[in-house]
Amino acid sequence: MDKTYHVIRFKLFTQSYAGKFLLAYLRNSSFVDIAVRRLARALLFKEFMLYRFIVMGKYQRQSFRIKVKDDNLVNTERISIYLQIEHEIFNLMNMKKNKSKFSEFEYEYGNTLLSSAIERVAGNNLKNINDDSEFQRRLTALIKSYQHWYYSVAYKYKLPTLRILPYIIRLISA
Length: 174
Known about the structure:
The protein is mostly helical. It has helices at 3-15, 17-27, 32-43, 47-54, 73-97, 104-107, 113-125, 132-156, 165-173. Helix 3 crosses helix 4, helix 5 packs across helix 7 and helix 7 packs across helix 8. It is elongated and about 55 Å long.
């Protein structure tokens, strides 16, 4: 594995919802040192980088662009979409905590948080379409590709998703 792969992987983790959630969770815990060590072992990160992120508050600047070494535009675009989706998940979770801003009607039909975030990002990226049927057709196609891109980036860089987060918490709390 290449050094840049690990750097991109760690940057993506620090910008993800899982990274921000674990940051808040571990900062308020009494067993930070042990948990950071366990988390580094579980996610295969360098312990000192994870310690700097969680305890010292480094690497927290929000960015939707992470440079990929080979300058492959497809990979850069997929990473950008992944970061936008993670940002929307974070926004949706904050809105869910603050019930006055959260529209239950918009999310009551069994949509998961991830699909709602993907739908919002896809809708934000569609512009200047006046026909509703054309908008819906493009939205459906974008949602499908964004979902594929999200999971392909998460798989390629071995990043935790919302589904895996409870297992990670149990693992570091044990």
